[in-house]
Amino acid sequence: MDQPLLVLLLPQRLEQFDLEQPVRDLLQADGVVAVDPSRVPLARMVPTVAARAAIGQARRMRLPGTPRAVAVFHPFQFFLAGALLARNPGSELWYGRPEGEELDAALDAELAERAALTMTPEQLLAIAPLRMAELGIATGSSG
To answer: Is it the case that residue 55 has pLDDT exceeding 90?
Structure first.
């Protein structure tokens, strides 16, 4: 049976992310994987091009299981999250809405509307193990 996963779409490389330690703590669980952003940011593309690029990116991802939840931490991750969710029907979208920065209003609203969970990134990372357990995603380490 395929392992259920929480896929964390990071807004920047883990080493540069201001929530690096809470993400690293969560990554100790067998059911969690983190995906660094692509070298060509989808946010800089026209939406139709970004959507096509995200579909290709999602198709090329080699994940060690099946996403049951996809967490995003910035609206520019909307396209990749959508592509992953389309490939994995029934998966949840989680939105760690960034605070204190100007966001693309349309993408922010779309994410907030579609997300099963919308809260600050800190709150999302804190509550993740509880929701993971409810979804059957491994919250511990086997090795």
So the answer is: no
